[in-house]
Amino acid sequence: MDCILRDSWRTWRKAPVVTLVTIVSLTLGIGTANAFFAVVDQLLFRTLRIDRPHEVYQLSDDDAISRRRPRGYTYRAWEVLRNQTAVFDVAFARKTTEVDLATTGESDHATAVWVSGDAFRLLGVGASRGRVLAPSDDVIGGGPHGPVAVVSHRFWMRRFGGSDGAIGRTLTVAGVPFTVVGVASESFEGFEVGRPFDLVLPMASEPLVAGASSFVTTRAGGAMLDVFARLKPGLGVVAATDALRRAQSAIRLETMPNYRQARDREAYLRAPFVLTPAPQGGSLPARYYSRPLTLVLGLALLVLVAVCGNVAAVLLAQAEGRRYEFAVRLALGTSRRQLATQVMADGLLLAAIGAGCGLVLAWWLAPVLLTRLSGMGVPIEFGTPLDWRGVWAAAAAALFTGVLCSVAPLLAAKDVDAAAALANRTPGRAQTARLGRLVSAQLAFSTMIVASAALLWASHRGLVQDGTGVHAPDTIAVEMHLDRVDDDVAVRGMEQLRARVAALPGVEHAALAQTVPLQGFYMTTIVSSEQTDAMPERDRVVQFHWISPGYLAAMGTALLAGRDFADSDASGRPAVAIVNTALVEKFFAGDRSLPKRLVRPTDDGGAEELSIVGIAENVQFKMLGEEAMPALYVAAAQQLHRLDRLRSAVLVVRPQAGITIGASLAALLTRDQVPFAFTTRPFSYFVDRNTAQTRLLAECAGAFALVAVVMAAMGMFGAAVHWTTRRRRELGVHLAVGAVPVDIVTLVLRQATWRAVCGIVPGLIGAWWILRAASSWVMGAHPEVLPLVVSGLGLAGILLLATAWPASRAGQMAPADVLRAE
């Protein structure tokens, strides 16, 4: 062993540049791959820090599984399901929402988890201070101590400074006081992997906060609650599923929500129950990011392979340079097995050093990546970014790269002909061709990574710039929370606030709306006209939005025909509407002539005839990448008095070009006594939240592409140096018989171009295939010709630049010196 280490050290010391290039390559490859493995590990492989997490199951049904998200259940369904004591040892239901802890003014948001009384018993989680929730707290109107709350350890430290006096304090949740009775254990990070929480509240207390729209008291069709359970001891998951399915018909009939559509009722009755393992607590971040992270992990493996190809090419060039040394050793009696062992040990030791350096790089890079991921739309919280699994991953990567990198030099050492090598130190064409093929293979993998990154960035930019239907990136949305004020007060307060904001210097447009694009929700209504008589009701469902004059201009949404709403479109005047192009295409066969007529039902059972006065471009209100849904905009002044309850609205503010109004808007909102709570956000917040998947992929692929470009440039540079060095005599002869330096440079560049083409073309084909396969996985991801061509040409240019210096040096050789040395 000492002899192997000593020989390896002597080899590295004789070629310090080769050693440094190898270690840097392995550090970049293993470190980057390991850092991204930490991200994937945090979201996809971690389990909840609870008692026996693999014994927790989530109740869902088959059609929900096919949609890759578990079905939620109504509170009435939960009441029936929790009584299945023959199947469940203990069960609990959960719903995560965002609540407001402020009374007026700027909202103070907190993440609240509404749970049934047995939640902490099922999870086996205790309290670090006070107590956890008990079944006696989960009573309509509050238990014996009234509405109570348990806070997370993180929230306790942030809000109360870790004071024991927090127990018994009051938190105001949407205007309702809740008494803090406990602080959850510090080790309990949340009910879902990667998703933090602030408060845990009894589910039966939710009507105190939500009022008439509470999910506890309503029987609307919205599926709200996630249901989890531990099975009876000795009862397998198959037997438990069979028992639930035998009781399914009675459970479904008893808990049928108030679905309006017959197909929804049929689907609810038909879909069979299933129990799926939920060691991650049905994690939303894991579901949201699973597919893009899987693709990221695949790209990380491609980076490792590219690094292996680069290092293998360097070690192969070194091994061919050591042919004379190998021949001498063989002549002195060293066996080929000992020679192969030494070559393999060189590769493994270099890989081990690279893995150690890579682990240090990953230790620094992983928290940066996790922090970046936490800001991508879904609030995420992580534990230690690297643990023993990260170390094992680095060790596995070192073994993988060490073995793979040693194969080529091992073959070179194995094929050494001692007599021929002693007679001629210059390697033959076979050895040079082997190195060329290895460089081309490494370039192919590097090209796949670079081209995939270019395609993903192009898809992401196209989604952000053209997919929203909004062309006013500086627009600000003031979300107004109106559920704690009367409708009359809310309407007056909204209009007064709009007028004051519109009067601020620098404000171009200020308008009111029910919601803004990409906010994630909208109302629907059913429309009819002469053209829709033959359509079933489900095909006549459209989005329904009330907006005030100037809203379209504030959002930068183009009005393609007709006019915007005006102040004259008031209550008592003929009802008017604006529709999007998707509605025109579906109901009027694309005819944009105006006016047109639509009829929609009203909440009092009557009907309202609307005159269409404008056509706007399509806008996505829920999710980018989906097909635009027909949308109907109505004048706010004509509709607000018709609504049963006004719970929220948005004030949309667009500043003049080049002017920042954030400070003046904040000062106005703080100074004026606004009668409701509000949240101010730039519209870019909703775009960023909605494009988190594509941005994650684009940024990760971009990081991999940088590593791949470095690897490709180093590989091409090393190959060019090796080729010109090993062909010095041939190039010297060319110069001696009349060739000029330009001829030599052209010869080297032609060789490099051929190798680049042999690597880049298959790489571009591979990238096209990767993006085509990923298009069904990731929103907006699809192959395009232009980014593919640009990335290929750009990489080719970088590779030729990397070859330029060795080619220039070769052209400046003095032929007499070269031939004399030979």
Write out key terms for the chains shown:
822 residues; globular; 22 strands; alpha+beta; 7-stranded mixed β-sheet; 10-stranded mixed β-sheet; single chain
Task: Explain what the structure shows.
- It contains 27 helices and 22 strands.
- It is of the alpha+beta class and 822 residues long.
- Helix 2 (16-45) packs across helix 14 (388-414), helix 11 (284-321) packs parallel to helix 14 and helix 25 (741-774) runs antiparallel to helix 26 (785-811).
- The longest helix has 39 residues, at 336-374.
- The radius of gyration is 34 Å and the shape is globular.
Please specify the SSE layout and strand pairing.
Blueprint: H1 2-14, H2 16-45, E1 56-61, H3 62-66, H4 75-81, E2 88-100, E3 105-106, E4 109-115, H5 119-123, E5 127-130, E6 148-151, H6 153-160, E7 170-173, E8 176-184, E9 199-202, H7 206-210, E10 226-231, H8 237-246, H9 248-254, H10 262-270, E11 273-277, H11 284-321, H12 323-331, H13 336-374, H14 388-414, H15 418-423, H16 429-466, E12 476-481, H17 487-502, E13 507-513, E14 523-526, E15 541-547, H18 551-555, E16 559-562, E17 576-580, H19 581-588, E18 596-601, E19 607-616, E20 631-635, H20 636-639, E21 648-655, H21 662-671, E22 677-682, H22 683-690, H23 692-726, H24 728-736, H25 741-774, H26 785-811, H27 815-821
Parallel strand pairs: 3-22, 4-9, 6-8, 15-20, 17-19
Antiparallel strand pairs: 1-10, 1-11, 2-4, 2-10, 5-8, 6-9, 7-8, 12-21, 12-22, 13-21, 14-15, 16-19, 17-20, 18-19
